[in-house]
Amino acid sequence: xxxxxxxxxxxxxxxxxHDELNRLEKAGTDWLHFDVMDGVFVPNIxxxxxxxxxxxxxxxxxxxxxxxxxxxxxxxQDFASAGAKLITFHLESKSNPFQVVQAIKNQHxxxxxxxxxxxxxxxxxPFLEDLDVILVMTVEPxxxxxxxMHEITPKINTIxxxxxxxxxxxxxxxxxxxxxxxxxxxxxxxxxxxGSYLFRQTxxxxxxxxxxxxFPVGK
Length: 219
Ligand code: DX5
Ligand code: ZN
Description:
Elements: E1 4-8, H1 17-27, E2 31-37, H2 49-57, E3 62-68, H3 76-81, E4 86-90, H4 97-106, E5 110-115, E6 133-137, H5 153-162, E7 169-173, H6 181-187, E8 191-194, H7 196-199, H8 204-212
Parallel strand pairs: 1-2, 1-8, 2-3, 3-4, 4-5, 5-6, 6-7, 7-8
Helix pairs in contact: 1-8, 5-6
Zinc ion binds next to strand 2.
């Protein structure tokens, strides 16, 4: 399967978001990774529903919403209405995970579950039947620009083996760049989230190719 690149717009130039979306499309990214932080589940506040609504109207990239919020159950419907196609929530949040999964399905969105660095792979086992995406955090959630935690790589591999015969995509988030991407891919990642690395490039197309380990073709 081709590696998908999910661009985290947490690191985009917020004053020129429309230009940034065009830049991502031209560079060949696949997904638009939208990090929602509530200042409670993580010690940072990002952006929310009005921004998602505006962004999804202006892009053809697949809207991948990563909820780093304490009570995802209360907001599933709102994020679906704002244009989310995949809604990923944290197993460590306060909501009942079975109810959140059902609420996301009821909105006809894809279901993603994310785990923080300290949460073991086996915590995902009761949910595998219902998941479209597993999002493994390779940094503590809350901020872009942190370093990839190499000690999480074996967990990516464990999860890859766990989901071998299922149609679940394995997404990895945090500290992904041209140096760490091969390690995550080797361990079995299908989707790479990249924020600070992508947005600091002048030639984003080459950077996307370097993450996928492809040679740039055309522009
Ligand atoms: C961190 C977010 C990430 C972040 C990734 O809590 O979930 O999506 O934007 O940023 P980089 O690629 O800079 O680590
Ligand atoms: Zn994220």
